[in-house]
Design brief:
Blueprint lengths: L1 E4 L14 H9 L3 E5 L10 H7 L2 E3 L2 H5 L4 E6 L14 E5 L6 H9 L3 E4 L14 H20 L7 E3 L2 E3 L3 E5 L3 H12 L3 E5 L5 H7 L3 E3 L19 H15 L4 E4 L14 H5 L6 E4 L16 E4 L2 E4 L9 H17 L2 E2 L4 E2 L6 H6 E4 L2 E2 L2 H4 L12 H6 L4
Parallel strand pairs: 1-2, 1-4, 2-3, 4-5, 5-6, 9-10, 9-12, 10-11, 12-13, 13-15
Antiparallel strand pairs: 6-18, 7-8, 14-15, 16-17, 18-19
Helix pairs in contact: 1-2, 1-10, 5-6, 5-10
Bound molecules: nicotinamide-adenine-dinucleotide (NAD).
Nicotinamide-adenine-dinucleotide (NAD) binds next to helix 5 and helix 6.
């Protein structure tokens, strides 16, 4: 089993898909790991550290890929960048497939078996493989660090001989994985923290972290399936907006993290709400990648409106790449372990396994994931099952 770890080539991605720790574990599974020189550079992992862990260092991507049966990646690679990999090689990483169907079709066309880690089911067995959680947790932390760096005042209350400094007020909108870590981080820095969510169950979690939970009377619970939120009705949205408008005007820092699966991020903070905040306030919009929770967010940019800074930085986990890579690499390792016959030290993918069927996007030249098959260009679609074809009268 040859595994290739390449330098990331898409979108200035600083993370890397393996660390010396995971390389050592992969060798223990019987794999040979070939790392392209410089792959860990932006995650503070030197080539020497990989080599010491037992990796074979490759001078180029082509050398690392030659005959590789498995490729670990952070971002979706371009099919052309994987030329030279073994036929049917497994490509495992965050594939971000929606809206990029042509790229997925190209990976299928190259004969690669592609797995999207972000589709990992949220079941107990797969918790250790949950890249959304491992990275969102760090994004929540980094959001507070970035806000604190931008906020030109201290966060904790300080009683000094020269006077008392009041604690900064931090409001976290969306108390999922990222939001809960943002709350915990802001609390550690001594801020007075409040939070809101549309899932009632989040209330207890917020309060257990020592923050105040805020929710409208009208909105009892908007929990959807799988622990996620559902979209609010118009009446619920209006009631939430009224509550937020009153609260946000008194906040110094707002961190927004609200997401709804398969939908653009809900807009929670309007221009008027931003304009109600005191000069020097800071907003970090963690939903920027999905359009943003704040009306004024410019994804990828930091803007100042009415003396309020709105941070729309993308890829916050990438700002703490060394830690993010450490956790991400562990997520990949855990998934890969389920694909190995440990006795015979050989690749043995169980194509029926729930973890595989949930994440597999392409195989044998076709796009196979049910959520993508309809969107795939015709040439890349898996052939329809005979029954389905005859029902359509195509047989
Ligand atoms: N393996 C597992 O079982 C597992 C793993 C990770 C997370 N979880 C759970 O899944 C849940 C969702 O976590 P997530 O971080 O992936 O969620 P997410 O990233 O989809 O959304 C972030 C948060 O935004 C909230 N939200 C959505 N619309 C909102 C609105 N209009 N106003 C305010 N908040 C809004 C959501 O309820 C959620 O808490 C959490 O309860 C988490 O504990 C379970």
């Amino acid at each position: 089993m040859k595994i290739a770890i390449l330098r990331e080539r898409v979108g200035d991605e600083p993370r890397v898909a393996a660390t010396p720790e995971t390389v050592a574990k992969l060798l223990g599974l019987g794999a040979e790991v070939s790392v392209e020189a410089g792959a860990g550079e932006h995650s503070r992992i030197s080539d020497a550290a990989y080599a010491e862990a037992g990796a074979t260092m490759a001078g180029s991507a082509a050398e690392a890929l030659k005959g590789a049966e498995v490729i670990f990646t952070v971002r979706r690679p371009r099919a052309a960048d994987l030329d030279g990999a073994g036929t049917g090689a497994l490509v495992i990483g965050m594939m971000d497939p929606f809206g990029h169907e042509d790229d997925i079709a190209a990976l299928a066309g190259a004969g690669l078996s592609t797995f999207a880690m972000e589709f990992m089911p949220r079941i107990t067995r797969a918790q250790v493989m949950d890249v959304l959680s491992s990275q969102a947790n760090l994004a929540g932390y980094q959001a507070v660090i970035d806000a604190a760096a931008q906020y030109e005042r201290a966060l904790p209350m300080m009683m000094t001989a020269a006077g008392t400094v009041r604690a900064a007020k931090v409001f976290v909108m969306g108390a999922g994985v990222a939001g809960l870590q943002a709350i915990a981080t802001a609390r550690r820095l001594g801020a007075a923290v409040s939070a809101t969510d549309v899932r009632a169950v989040a209330g207890e979690q917020v309060e257990s972290l020592g923050a105040k939970f805020i929710m409208t009377e009208a909105l009892k619970d908007a929990s959807g399936t799988g622990g996620y939120a559902r979209e609010l009705t118009d009446a619920e949205k209006a009631s939430q907006a009224e509550l937020v408008a009153g609260h946000i005007a008194k906040q110094d820092i707002v961190i927004t993290t609200a997401l709804i699966p398969g939908r653009p991020a809900p807009q929670l903070v309007t221009r008027a709400m931003v304009e109600s905040m005191a000069p020097g306030s800071v907003i970090v919009d963690l939903a920027a990648e999905r359009g943003g929770n704040v009306e004024l967010t410019a994804p990828g940019e930091v803007i100042v409106h009415n003396d309020v800074t709105i941070i729309g930085t993308l890829n916050l986990p990438g700002k703490i790449a060394a830690t993010a890579s450490q956790l991400y690499a562990k997520n990949l390792l855990a998934f890969f372990e389920t694909m190995v016959d440990k006795e015979n030290k050989a690749l043995a993918v169980n194509w029926e396994d729930q973890l595989v069927t949930a994440t597999l996007l392409t195989r044998d030249g076709a796009v196979v994931h049910p959520n993508l098959v309809d969107a795939a260009p015709a040439a890349a679609k898996a052939p329809a099952a005979p029954e389905a074809a005859s029902k359509d009268g195509d047989a």
